[in-house]
């Protein structure tokens, strides 16, 4: 008799939980079906429009542009779950399960950083005030409407609803591509978990040393996963949604389908965000340009010569 808890045994424990989750959409559907249309896409488009309007309104009301950030880890799986009320499938249930795991990790990290705490400096992304100052108030308000409220919510819609719809309509059973997508996705979640914890430990120690007047570091993390990528968590995050795209491939049998628009736009968003983040870092830290020369931007690669971990 072995003490090793095999994958098969683990799946025997987890699969009943997924099956229980599968029953819930049918129950919800029976309750709200009279109030719904006959097709999930028009409903989800309406939800996207209402969310965009609400995000803009609450941002103006609170003078805080991070409301989409706070809901980023919640909206995609909520969309997928809503689509499932029209009829669930094993593939869609797997997607919802993975979405919940992804969302719990991201939400937990956001809570830890103070993203939901109105008294915390992290309640608003530090980049928004900098951008606001650069653009000026009138242009920034237009930016908030077009980019923050509409475009970001549009991306959240595109990375979740089309693939969920494919999975909802498909009669193709789960096969090897679904399992490969799920395995890679879980591996990327592990990368995010490790990278976030390394960053949290670094920033916590840095803050303590600053408060003690004893900090002599370069100002930014260059060790762990950050030795191989300057933004390993960014890379893992947009890659996760390429894994979700693979579910649409499995459901449709088409390697290229219209669900690809969401991951493409998300990848572009992360590249733009990385550009802006690094512009700020170059201005704050003298050695950051050297770090850029020695370490890959997003994709983890073998690094060049390490930079000094202390300022002279």
- The proportion of strand residues reads under 5%
The number of helical segments is: 11
Q: Could you say which structural class the secondary elements and strand pairing correspond to? A: mainly alpha
Uncertain stretches of 5 or more adjacent residues: 1-5, 31-36
Question: Could you describe the 3D structure shown?
Answer:
With 312 residues, this protein is mostly helical. The chain has eleven helices and no strands. The protein has two domains: 1-171, no CATH class; 174-312, no CATH class. The chain has helices at 7-32, 40-62, 67-71, 75-84, 90-113, 127-135, 137-169, 176-211, 232-252, 261-284, 288-294. The longest helix is centred in the middle third of the chain and has 36 residues, at 176-211. It is globular and about 60 Å long.
Give a brief rundown of this model.
By secondary structure, the chain is mainly α. The protein folds into 2 domains: 171 residues, no CATH class; 139 residues, no CATH class.
């Amino acid at each position: 008799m072995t003490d090793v808890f095999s994958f098969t045994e683990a799946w025997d424990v987890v699969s009943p939980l997924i099956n229980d989750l599968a029953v819930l959409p049918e129950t919800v559907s029976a309750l709200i079906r009279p109030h719904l249309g006959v097709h999930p896409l028009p409903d989800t488009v309406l939800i996207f429009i209402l969310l965009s309007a609400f995000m803009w309104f609450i941002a103006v009301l609170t003078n805080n542009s991070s409301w989409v950030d706070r809901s980023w880890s919640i909206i995609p799986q909520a969309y997928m779950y809503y689509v499932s009320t029209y009829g669930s499938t094993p593939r869609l249930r797997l997607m919802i399960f993975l979405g919940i795991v992804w969302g719990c990790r991201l939400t937990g990290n956001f809570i830890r950083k103070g993203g939901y705490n109105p008294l915390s400096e992290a309640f608003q992304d530090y980049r928004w005030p900098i951008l606001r100052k650069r653009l000026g108030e009138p242009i920034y308000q237009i930016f908030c409407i077009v980019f923050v409220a509409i475009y970001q919510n549009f991306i959240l819609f595109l990375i979740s609803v089309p693939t969920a719809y494919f999975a909802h309509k498909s009669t193709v059973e789960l096969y090897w591509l679904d399992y490969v997508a799920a395995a890679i996705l879980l591996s990327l979640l592990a990368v995010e978990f490790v990278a976030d914890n390394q960053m949290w430990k670094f920033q916590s120690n840095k803050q303590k040393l600053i408060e003690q007047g004893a900090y002599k570091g370069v100002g930014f993390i260059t060790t762990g996963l950050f030795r191989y990528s300057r933004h390993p968590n960014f890379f893992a995050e947009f890659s996760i949604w390429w894994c979700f795209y693979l579910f649409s491939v499995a459901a449709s049998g088409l390697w290229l389908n219209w669900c690809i628009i969401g991951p493409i736009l998300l990848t572009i968003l992360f590249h733009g965000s990385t550009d802006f983040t690094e512009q700020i870092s170059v201005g704050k830290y003298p050695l950051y340009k050297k770090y850029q020369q020695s370490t890959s931007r997003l994709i983890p690669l073998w690094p060049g010569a390490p930079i000094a971990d202390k300022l002279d």
